[in-house]
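Quick one, tokens below:
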């Protein structure tokens, strides 16, 4: 049976614990203090598989799931990869381009799996959008807009762009099958922490279907919870609400047609509800990680995709400082 170590039982780590406990694995858990291990005890993880010193288990496991602050990702991933272990690490892979690239290279050198927690790649709605875009059902995708925000506690290990905006940056890279050519960003720090708490990132892509303009908005302030993506093509448009369990996508066969001179006619077409399987993306990505350990198949969210997302966000930070677009 595959032996997996879960490193970290914070807010998101608790969800990993729940899902990993439902998979056919032998689960080990590590945290910095004995009190933090209580959730693992409550669900029946044996005492001999709990520790406050993760190094005790390195030689006992096949892979590790790292759900710790972003600053710790590089040293932890490096340690486990060089010890010959497969690694799943939550996003962001790291906070710097250099560290992310180094981890991807270390994984390749040691022939290890390194999967990044780009969870939206494992949502069935995302797979439908990617396939529809790639197959030309949308025609030329003119624009994509994403809003990942809502009122919640700010993370303290990174700004909102790295904490939340990265979800949609990676999502757009995945759906379009490309990296943006140009990145422009505006960030604000209303809390005065030296970390952005409002971010607007503008991305310009060039794909086989033409140029696409994409925007990613993230913040901690607007009442509610928003996980919405809008894809607008010249043949078809779609609204995808990732908050919804199953019926996430509606498509609109809306078109603009020339009507002489500078005039265009706007025609509203058929509205269609798209049904996708009701699958929990976190469970799907953890199951995929376990499968990759067994089959040695490259993960859908591999280290290089994690590196690409980090590159885009660091270009966005450079844009904020320079006050101009940055070429990737």
């Amino acid at each position: 049976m595959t032996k997996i170590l879960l490193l970290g039982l914070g807010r998101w780590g608790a969800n990993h614990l729940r899902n990993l406990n439902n998979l056919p694995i032998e689960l080990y858990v590590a945290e910095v203090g004995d009190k933090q291990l209580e959730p693992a005890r409550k669900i029946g993880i044996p005492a001999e598989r709990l520790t406050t010193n993760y190094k005790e288990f390195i030689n006992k496991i096949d892979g590790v799931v790292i759900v710790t602050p972003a600053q710790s990702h590089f040293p932890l991933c490096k340690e486990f990869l060089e010890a010959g272990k497969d690694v799943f690490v939550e996003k962001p892979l790291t906070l710097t381009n250099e560290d992310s690239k180094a981890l991807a290279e270390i994984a390749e050198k040691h022939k290890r799996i390194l999967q990044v927690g780009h969870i939206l790649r494992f949502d069935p709605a995302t797979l439908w959008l990617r396939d529809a875009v790639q197959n030309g059902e949308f025609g030329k995708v003119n624009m994509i807009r994403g809003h990942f925000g809502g009122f919640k506690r700010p993370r303290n290990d990174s700004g909102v762009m790295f904490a939340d905006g990265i979800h949609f940056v990676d999502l757009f890279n995945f759906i379009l099958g490309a990296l943006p050519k140009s990145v422009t960003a505006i960030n604000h720090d209303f809390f005065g922490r030296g970390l952005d708490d409002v971010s607007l990132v503008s991305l310009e892509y060039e794909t086989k279907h033409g140029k696409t303009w994409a925007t990613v908005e993230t913040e901690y302030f607007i009442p509610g919870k928003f996980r919405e993506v809008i894809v607008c093509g010249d043949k078809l448009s779609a609204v995808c609400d990732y908050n919804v369990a199953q019926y996430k996508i509606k498509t609109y066969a809306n078109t603009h047609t020339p009507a002489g001179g500078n005039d265009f006619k706007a025609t509203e077409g058929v509205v269609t509800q798209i049904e996708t399987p009701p699958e929990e993306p976190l469970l799907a990505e953890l199951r995929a990680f376990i499968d990759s350990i067994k089959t040695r198949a490259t993960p859908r969210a591999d280290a290089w995709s994690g590196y690409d997302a980090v590159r885009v966000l660091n270009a966005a930070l450079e844009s904020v400082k320079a006050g101009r677009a940055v070429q990737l």
